[in-house]
Here is the input.
Amino acid sequence: MSEVRESIAHARSVVVKIGSSALTDLGTGLDTDRLDRLADALEARMRAGSDVIVVSSGAIGAGIAPLGLKKRPTDLATKQAAASVGQLALAHAWGTSFARYKRTVGQVLLTADDISNRAHHANAQRTLDRLRSLGAVGVVNENDTVATNEIRFGDNDRLAALVAHLAGADALFLLSD
Here is the structure.
């Protein structure tokens, strides 16, 4: 095994970013079967000794079907409305999935600007550290309801890198298409 693979295999703290297409379907919203399979893999990693933080995309996608929209919105207000509905559904789905393992989930909504603001950065870091120390899973999502120009492809990839730095993670996995 290469040195890089070895260090990833034994990483004590990992951040896993999961893209929208892994969690949602345009017609039905959240795909809870896929989400459960991802939670199964993450739980196995935690049982092997790693702390895991999830950066979850999918809030806008999860809000499309419940709002009766036929396609992904293009205007900012509708994206924000879909995100507000989807964030609830997404947090509930992660909580339900990890509850199968008697594990609690804490939602942390951030923007990239929160990471660059010293006070917000410290608060987010403390929250994530405390969630991990309590055995809970921090599920981070871009706070699309207050974001404006941040709502574009790739934001949660960038946010995941910032969260990995914030949390002092040993490894970052980007599960995106």
